[in-house]
Amino acid sequence: MTKETLTITDNRTGRTFELPVTHDTINAMDLRQIKVNDDDFGMLSYDPGFKNTASTKSTITYIDGGKGILRYRGYPIEQLAEKSNFLEVAYLTMFGELPNQEQYDKWAYEIRHHTFVHENIKRLMEAFRHDAHPMGMFISVVAALSTFYPEARNIFDEKDRMKQIVRLIAKVPTIAAFSYRHSRGLPYVYPDNDLSYTGNFLNMLDKMTQVRYEPDPILARALDVLFILHVDHEQNCGTATMRVIGSSNTDPYSAMAGAAAALYGPLHGGANEAVLRMLLEIGDVKNVPAFVEGVKKRERLLMGFGHRVYKNYDPRAQILKSYADKVFEATERNPLLDIALELERIALEDDFFVERNLYPNVDFYSGIIYQAMGFPIAMFPVLFAIPRTVGWLAQWVELLNDKEQKIARPRQIFLGEDERDFVLMENR
Ligand code: SDX
Fold first, then answer.
1. pLDDT one-digit tens code per residue, 154-164
2. Phi, psi dihedral angles at 72 (to 5 degrees)
3. CB-ligand 1 contact for 354 (6 Å cutoff)
4. What is the pLDDT of residue 382?
5. Distance between CA 249 and CA 253 in Å, rounded?
6. In terms of Cα–Cα distance, which of 188, 374, 170, 383 is closest to 269?
């Protein structure tokens, strides 16, 4: 019978320690007993960027980076993208099981009837310049919502907590659409609660003088699939931020504003915007080889490529690549797709990328599709934040229910100055 332990010998003292192994993991706190002197603090592990550190146990999303597997609550992303819809996947992610018809109808009704925001939110958005980045507006408004719902601080009252979860999932498309309309100098369009989640989003984005807006079903479905693909992705930077902020027991609006701020970064959810700007800069397929050479010389990153977990093709990128053609039937073929396909062809053959396991990730194709659908590039990270709201909230609830969790407070290796006395100005 093999022993589920790790034996460590500290060669500084000759002492041996036996650490229990569970889920192929050791508990970092078990390292603290390893000391040279009894009054030492004890051993730490050093892991910048948390490349090899589990911060939580979770049952929400499973990723196998080597095999390119992604499952929400055990269901493969490919099946969910093909057979489900965003609100159903949101229910699954939040509650752990697919809803029956009655559960689904109640959930969809709840979400569709909390889409309005307080009228003061419009005045708050008026304070932004016309060219304010919509993600900056999104983050600000989400944080501001915490002031409209003070009961959100009752995070351990399940009824109050669920009310905020429904409000956030329901209102993020409204906030996104209002920020888009603000940037275009157009009047805000109020939600139409008889439309689907994505149909209503298109309505609030595009409605002009029509008495009633009829969303294009192909585009509404394409958005639904895009939203499904972006719902959750285990402990990514934005979700880890949601958990770190949530671990101080703050309200979900404040925690989610921080998560959205992390997502905004070009190395994370802001990569879809950066991909488009990269493709526009390349401008023509004939310029791709020179651009790739620049990447290999470390002059810049190939945005939309690489991933901390996937060392194979991101399954979401596979689905998006196949979906692009469907969207282009309803819009028009995006010429940038040819540049993207050439970039991918070269990268998948070139040792520089192959040796580093750099494959297209979810952000590589999503931007091309969003642009073909008419979204301005600056809206792309907001389009990522809308569906990821579900993942952030599901992970936040899991954090609150996890008795092993404590306030996040990492340690450090101090390499600074030893104690020294203050020197008066005249003596410096
Ligand atoms: C998302 O975590 C998630 O799950 C995120 C996400 C989600 O759903 O939440 O999947 C969404 O954020 C997708 C990633 C979007 N970001 C980009 O497309 C930006 C470009 N990608 C890189 O910045 C990078 O690949 C990261 C940030 C995504 C991953 O970085 P890692 O894991 O820290 O890897 P690394 O920086 O250590 O890179 C390893 C090597 C390095 O070369 P060497 O120093 O070893 O020689 O690969 C190189 C890097 O320089 N490299 C790249 C590259 N990505 C990594 N070189 C050129 N272009 C790139 N894109």
1. 999 999 999 99
2. -100, 120
3. no
4. 97
5. 12
6. 383
Place of tokens 């902020």: 245
| CATH number for the domain running over 67-267+381-400 | 1.10.580.10
Whether 301 lines ligand 1, by a CB cut-off of 6 Å, is yes
| Residue of 308, 320, 353 to test ligand 1 pocket, by largest number of atoms within 8 Å of CB | 308
* Region label for 14, one of left (φ > 0), alpha (ψ between -120 and 50) or beta (otherwise): left
Res 325: pLDDT: 79
Q: What are residue 71's DSSP bridge partners?
A: 62, 76
Quick check: CB of 388 below 6 Å from ligand 1?
no
DSSP at 188: P
**Which of these, 258, 254, 247, 257, lies nearest to 401 by C-alpha position?**
247
DSSP 28: G
- What is the residue extent of each domain of the chain? 67-267+381-400, 271-372
* CB-CB neighbours of 258 under 10 Å: 20
Q: Which atom of ligand 1 is nearest to the CA of 234?
A: 4
| Beta-bridge mates of residue 7 | 18
Architecture per CATH, 271-372: Orthogonal Bundle (1.10)
> What value does the CA radius of gyration of the chain take, rounded to a whole number of Å?
24
Give the model confidence (pLDDT) of 62-73 as tens digits. 999 999 999 999
Q: Which residues of the chain have pLDDT under 70?
A: none
